[in-house]
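ugh ok fine here u go
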Amino acid sequence: MPLCSMEEAIEDLKAGKFVIVVDDEQRENEGDLVMFAEMVTPEAVNFAVTEARGLLCMPIIGERLDELDIPLMIPQNTDVKNQTAFTVSVDYNEGTTTGISAQDRSATVQALIDPEVRADKFSQPGHLFPLRYHPGGVLARAGHTEAIVD
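structure:
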C-alpha cells in the first residue's frame, strides 16, 4: 500500500474512508485502521473487526472521558515503552443488545461523540475500548492515539 500525504489522508477521511496510521519500526511497528468517528457505520465496524482483527478502540480527549465517568483501565500502565492509555471498555445501552455486534459498537461510537449523551447511558465493561488522548498531542507523546486526534 502506498503512503500518502496528510492532505490526501484527510480528504479520504472526510469522504468516509479508512486510512492506516503507521508508526516507526522502533516503536510498535504496527498500523491502525482509522476512520472519523462521525463516519463510523455498522459496515465499517464489521470491516474493521473482520479484516484488521484487533481490538476496536477509540481515541477520546480526557474532558469527554471525565464527563462520561470512564476511568483508565489501570492506574499504573506497566507497558513502559508505549504507555497506551486504555480506559475501561464501554457499551452504549440505549437501543442495543449485547454490545458485541457491529450495529451495537457503531451505536457506541456515535453515542461517545454525542455531547447530549451522558454517563448513565453506558455500561462498563463493554466491547469498545476508549483510549485517553495525551494533552499536547504528538508533541508530548508520539502515539497513534495522539496522531489520530491531532
